[in-house]
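Entry type: protein chain
Record version: 2
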Amino acid sequence: MDLSILDPTQMAAWCIVPYDSRQRSPDERASMLQSLELAGEAWDWRDEHISQFPEELDALAARGLRLFGIWVPGVLPESGPLGEIHSAVRGFVVELATRGLTVDLWTCAEFGQPGPVQVLPAAEQAAHVNRTADHLEPLVELAGENGHRVGLYNHLGWFGEPENQIEVVEALRGRGLDNVGLVYQQHHGHHHLGRWPALMKTMTPYLYALGLNGMVEGAHWGGRKIHPYGHGPRDVDLARVVVESGWDGLTTILCHTMDDAEARLRDNLEGLNWVRACLRGEEPILPEARIPEPAWPH
């Protein structure tokens, strides 16, 4: 069984900038990633981090690490103009261009609520797909002009359903924009556990990145929504589906709690090694998590 898709030296860390009790500097963060032997990070940020972006790139480059993605806020407005791009994102794109770097821009058009999503009538579905595509088109165009891709991020709700995202992707591709796909985070997909094999097959042609998380049935929000990888009862089976799918994109491990990011990542890496061993047919002992109950950022 080829487990290269779960090789930690090829993986990125996600949600380690605002979600870190140590509030590391760019240099400290890059040093942590290097010590963990990860390949790099996807960069989430808040307004206070915008000015640190050049320093973040310098710190990663100094250690041979890669920036794989950047979070791009882009929620579909209930009213007002569509397609507005955050001014900081334009600045990030300029900075990347000066360095000859290309990344994926991770965005979602809606922040939704957990649980099953109501199926829209056909006409309403088509209208929502087109409006969402209208909203995202300027970002996808900006990305394409600079060699970047846009990954649609599943943050619950209508837009968090991969089938809906794929309709948006196809609408954008129908407009000549082929630099758009999916970024799927397991921690936003607890309600997908019952159909994971079929969903992975559906997503595979579109999937740019897959975020791993310890998955606990029904943990849609708070509590064990963010759980140490390997400590979820379904993690080995879910990973087997990924490995056997033949998909070869980017995998990420998650912080996203207000704990020490290094301790959270080490828990996930130890869980990852355990999952890999299980898939090889071994019978390893899973180490106890340093942070068994992560501090959910309310």
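Comment: Strands lie at 12-14, 40-43, 66-72, 104-107, 149-153, 180-185, 207-211, 250-254.
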